[in-house]
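Technical annex, item 7. During the second reporting period the consortium partners agreed on a shared format for inverse folding records so that results from different sites could be compared directly. Each record opens with the tokenized structure and is followed by the designed sequence. A conforming record, contributed by the partner at site C, is shown below for reference.
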């Protein structure tokens, strides 16, 4: 069981690194934001896998839920920060 979890964790870390390319090279801020959100979603799974590995799933689920909420709030905050209010005014007119 430990071997299966270890292999799963290594594969998930590899999958997490794929959107990292978009974070570094992304043509727009919103591409980078989307890639960070994708990485955050995969990191939640990684946290749960660590909980299974250490036989403390209850504690790691709480950590994963807190991380998910912070990831969601951070994504909305950054999107709101980079939103251009002039686009909304021209659309309403």
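Designed sequence (site C submission):
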């Amino acid at each position: 069981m430990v071997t299966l979890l270890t292999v799963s964790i290594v594969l998930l870390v590899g999958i997490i690194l794929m959107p990292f390319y978009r974070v570094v090279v992304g043509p727009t801020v919103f591409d980078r934001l989307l890639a960070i959100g994708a990485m955050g979603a995969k990191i939640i799974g990684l946290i749960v896998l660590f909980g299974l590995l250490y036989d403390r799933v209850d504690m790691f689920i709480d950590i994963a839920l807190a991380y998910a909420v912070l990831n969601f709030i951070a994504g909305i905050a950054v999107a709101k920060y980079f939103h251009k209010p002039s686009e909304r005014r021209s659309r309403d007119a």
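The CA atoms of residues 45 and 64 lie 8 Å apart. Residues 2-83 form one domain. All partners now use this format for quarterly exchanges.
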